[in-house]
Amino acid sequence: MFLDVKELAVRKLRIHKAYALGSIDFHSAEIKQIEPLEVTATAELLEGQIRVEGNLETKVELVCARCLEPVAEEVSRSFDLFYAPLPKNSSLTKHREDRLKDDDTEIGFYEGDGLFLADVLKEQVLLALPIKAICQSNCRGLCPNCGANLNHEECRCETHATDPRLASLARLKQDWLKKQ
Ligand SMILES: [Zn+2]
Ligand SMILES: [Zn+2]
Could you tell me if 51 and 79 are in contact, meaning their C-beta atoms sit under 8 angstroms apart? Predict the structure, then answer.
C-alpha cells in the first residue's frame, strides 16, 4: 500500500489490513514473520507532513543468541509517526540531527510522492524487537568446544571453558596426574 501525498491531501485514509507471511521484507535472515501482520491505522496529511497513527500486531521468529534455536516473539506496538518531505539539496543527516535536538518526536522523511506503508511497518517491528533474543532466561547455550546444545544434552567435554586451548591444557594435566 502506497501512501500518496496527493491522495492524503484530499482525504484522511483509514487502514485496516493484514500482511501475509513473507510480504514484508525485514532484510535479515534472523527475522522470520510467522503470523500475518495486522495493522489498524489512519494516514493523513498534516501541514505538509504525512502522519501515520495506529497499531500493529504480528509474530516473528528470531534466533536465540545463545543456542541458535528459533524463538517466537509476539510483536504488538502502537505508533504515531510523522514523515516530512525530504528536503532537496540539503544533507539528510544534518537535518535529522537538528530534529532530534529539538524534541523527541519520532520523525522520518519521505521522498517524492509519499511512502510505502510496508516500510513504515517494517521499521516499527524492528524497533519493537529485543536487541538479543534468548529462548529462555536460563538457556545454557552451545558448548564452545563441540557445539552441543547444552539445553538438550551434556556433552563429553571436560570443561566448558571458552578458550579451547585451556581445555586441552586441562586434559594434558589430567593425563600427567594419572601417570604419577
Ligand atoms: Zn537458547
Ligand atoms: Zn562439548
Answer: no
- Ion ligand 2: residues, Cβ under 5 Å: 143, 145-146, 148, 155, 157
Q: C-alpha grid cell for residue 38?
A: 495486522
- DSSP annotation of 131 reads S
d(CA 119, ligand 1 centre) in Å: 30
CA of 126 from ligand 1 middle (Å) equals 20
| Domains in the chain: boundaries | 2-128
Ligand nearest to the CA of 152: 1
Whole-prediction pTM value?
A: 0.75
Distance, in Å, from the CA atom of 98 to the CA atom of 121, rounded to the nearest integer, reads 25
The whole-number mean pLDDT for each consecutive block of 10 residues of the chain, a chain of 180 residues, reads 96 97 87 96 96 97 96 96 83 54 68 94 94 94 94 83 60 68
* Smallest-distance ligand from the CA of 66: 1
